[in-house]
Specification:
It is a single chain. It contains five helices and four strands. The chain is an alpha+beta fold. The chain has a single domain (about 1-140), classed as Enolase-like, domain 1 (2-Layer Sandwich), CATH 3.30.390.10. The protein has a four-stranded antiparallel β-sheet with strand order 1-2-3-4. Helix 1 (about 70-85) packs across helix 2 and helix 2 (about 95-110) packs antiparallel against helix 3.
Amino acid sequence: MKTVLMDQPGATSAHSIDRIEAYALACAVEGGPVSTLALMPVRTGLLIKLTSTDGAAGWGEAWCNYPPKGNLNKLGLLEDPIAPTLFDLPRSGWDAVRPTLENRLHRMVVHTGEFGPFAHCFAAIDMAMADLAARRDGISLATLLGAGQATKARVYARLARYTRRRQFANAPARGRP
């Protein structure tokens, strides 16, 4: 499902966001996976694309594994109140957008008790803004975020795949700090 949440074609500020697109994804997965939360016969996700007035675009993703239709809840939050608030922000650096959104919508977050869903939407916007800034500057996202040239990356065990205590207890210790 693709949703153009909002267009702001009259935006005049250089590099301001003038289009937000959201893609609510769902895919049936036969037999699972089984997570620490529950059986997940349908995997869901929410991707967003932010486009600025200069044509640069960036992508972000909101966590939507649970509840099963959590992506639709987050789509609704993006549509209103987050998108109108995002369009109303003054021009600033990409890294100022998330804290400004959190500040402006704090009262609503507390009032509704939707701390997680709002945080997931803010994270998706933060990712998209960083991606947009890196693409505009012609650099990698890692460079934008201050990473040096890495030759190795530490790994970790993803324990959500283990459904029994014995499997968890026998999980390999490799990668643990």
